[in-house]
Here is the input.
Amino acid sequence: MTETSAPEPSTGPGAQTTEFDLSDPAFITDPAAGERWLSGPRPVCPGKFADGSPIWVATGYQDVRKVLSEPTLRSRPPGDSHRESMLSRGIPEDIVDMFDSTLLTMDGEDHMRVRRLVTRALSARRMQTLTPAINRVAHRLLDDLAAKPEPDLIADYAHPLAIIVICELLGVDEGYREQWREWSETLAAALRPNPEQFAPAVRGMARVTRELIEARQAEPRDDLISELVQIHEQDSERLTDDELVALAMVLVQAGHETVRNLIALGVFTLLQHPDQLKQLKDDPSIAARAVVELVRHTAPVKHTFRRFATEPVEIGGVTVQPGEAIQVVLAAANRDPEEFDRPEALDLTREHNPHLGFGRGAHYCLGASLALIEGEVALNALFERFPDLELAADPAEIAPRYLLSMQRLPVRLSPAPTTCPVTG
Here is the structure.
C-alpha cells in the first residue's frame, strides 16, 4: 500500500479509495497503516469494509461519539439482515441466522429487550463482588508461571485468565473451557474467517451451549446461564432459543477476547514505558485509573461494527445517505488531540479521560466493568509477584499489527544475567 492521507469524500462512500480498506489483507497486517490512522488527519472519509462494500469512516472523537449515539444509524443494513455480507466472507449458510441474531446485530426494541436481561447480571456492583475470585484465578496462574523460565504471557496468563473468568460467570463447565478457548480464538477471526475452521467452531460452541442450557433447565445453579434460562422459561417471547444461544456465545467471545487483548497490550505497553510502570509498581492504588488509560492508549478493540443510515444524517460535514454504512475507529478517536492532552503519551494518572474504548450509547460494551476489574487485578498481581519482569524478545518482532491481536508475549520473570568481563 502507498502512504497517503485519507482523501476528502465526494458524492458517496464508494467515490474514492482510502487506506482504510478492510478488504485489503495488507491493511490488516501492515504495522504502519494503523499508526497513520491514529496520528493522521481525522475527516470523515470513504473506505471499504471486509466484503469490499463501500463505507464511510469516522476517526475524529466528536464524529465517532455522534455516530455511536445517533439513533438513525442502525446495526442492521437495508433489508434488515447481514446475511449477504456474512456469506461473502465465508460464514456458512446454516449458521448465518444464528450470527444474525446477536446483540451486536440487533436494534431498537429487540436490542433493548435482550440487553436488559443481562445488564443487571453484569452490573458494576456485581462485578466488584467477583474481584476476590478473579484474584484467586490470577495467583493460581502466576504459580504455574513461576515454574517456566520464559513463559508466554498471553498463552500462560492473559488468555486463560480471561476465558476462566467469563466461563465461571456464565457457568461453562471446566471440562469444556479449553475447547471453548480454541473456539473463541477461531471466532476472533470473524472479519475474515477461514470457513474450514470457523464453521466447526461455531457449530461446536452452539452445540455445547444448547447442552449447557438443557443442563441448567434440569438443575439451575448460581450462574448467568441459569438466570437467562429461568427468564426464557417464564416468557419465551423475552428470549428465544436462538437468541439465548447467540447471547451466550457473544458474551464468551466478547468477554474473553477484549480482556485478553487488554492484559497483553497493557503489559507490552507498560514494559515500553518504564517510568509509567514504576508509578504503578510504587503505588498499586492507581491501577484502576491506569487500566482506563491503557484502554484508551492501546485500544483492545480498534473499531466497531458498521452502522447504517435510515435517513440522511450529517457526520463531520458529510451527509450519510439512507442505506449507506459508516464505521468508527475507536483507536483513532482516543488519540484525537482536539479531545485529549498529549494523546500519544501514556499517562497512568491522566485525569480527563472520556475515552470511547468500550463504545457509547445503546451498544456500549456490557462487559466493560468486568474487563476493567480483570485488567486491574491481572496487572497488579503480575507486577507484585514479578516486579523485575522483562520482555524476552525484540519488541518490534512481537508488536501487534493494526487489526491483529498480539500473538505471543515471551517474558523473563527476572532480569537476564549479565556477563562480566574476565580480568587476568
About this structure: Strands lie at 45-48, 54-58, 73-74, 307-309, 313-315, 318-320, 325-328, 390-391, 411-412. The chain has one domain: 25-412. DSSP finds 18 helices and nine strands in the chain.
